[in-house]
Write a structure and sequence with these properties.
The protein is mainly alpha-helical and 182 residues long. The protein has seven helices and four strands; from the N terminus they run αααβαβαααββ.
């Protein structure tokens, strides 16, 4: 679900210039589809993940990534065991949201790489955020309501991350008859 929500938010912001978003797991079944409950929960939030296929995380994926977002601290730790040099660009989602929200607002020319470096510098300077709340719960094996709750949390976190990393999205005017309303 996180991949789908992040891809959707970045495509709305950047259009064809959106960064590539791929997901892979530290465990799981290569090639398996998304859980039915995940597909339903994402669709209810207007994101289609029906064609998602699971992949196992590889060192080459980590090495190519500009940013590695983990859903839990144990996943971040697995990334760092595999590729220790990825530490400066590897975060849990909640960790990066907190760091990005603590940064000064993004300048117009700030790139993803710039903001990741700023977040890492803040982390290395001692910003702890809330280390007791780094994980997004895994809904596997739970009911549809749990998947909905996790979908809501992921959607909210990703929208907060987008705004903190790249600034607010400019509101567009909607035209109603002869009047412009913002």
């Amino acid at each position: 679900m996180a991949e789908g929500f992040l891809r959707s938010v970045l495509q709305r912001r950047f259009g064809a210039e959106a960064p590539t978003v791929d997901s892979a797991g530290t465990q799981g079944w290569e090639g398996s589809g998304a859980q039915r409950e995940s597909i339903v929960a994402a669709r209810e939030r207007e994101v289609d993940i029906g064609s998602h296929l699971a992949r196992l995380l590889t060192t080459s994926m980590i090495e190519r990534a500009d940013l590695v977002l983990a859903m839990a601290g144990e996943h971040r730790d697995a990334v760092l065991r595999a590729v220790p040099d990825a530490a400066a660009r590897t975060f849990t989602l909640k960790e990066l949201v907190r760091l990005a929200q603590a940064l000064p607002p993004a300048g117009a020319a700030a790139s993803l790489g710039d903001r990741v470096r700023e977040a890492d510098a803040l982390r290395r300077a001692g910003f702890a955020g809330n280390p007791r709340d780094e994980d997004v719960a895994d809904p596997l094996g739970q009911g549809q309501d749990t998947y909905r709750a996790i979908a809501w949390e992921l959607d909210e976190l990703i929208h907060r991350l987008d705004a903190a990393m790249f600034g607010p999205v400019a509101a567009s005017a909607t035209i109603f008859g002869d009047r412009d309303l913002a």
